[in-house]
Amino acid sequence: MSVSPVEVPVLWIVLVLLLALAGGFLGTLLELALWVVVLMVLGSALLGLVVWRAVSSRTGSAGHVGRS
After folding, report:
1. Is this structure's pTM higher than 0.70?
2. Does the keyword Transmembrane apply (predicted)?
3. Which is deepest, 4, 5, 46, 68, by most CB within 10 Å?
């Protein structure tokens, strides 16, 4: 298979464009995964706060944990 000298830059341009497209797609997936982790952490913290408040209002002693 012989490639003419004119086709070589075109192949490189196509290859670079494909790599840029793949990099953009993977970057978007990585950013999406980061936001999922951030939202999971915030949701868990909020859920923990709600549960802690519910338990402390029911027993009245959760605010004094570790004190005699």
Report:
1. no
2. yes
3. 46
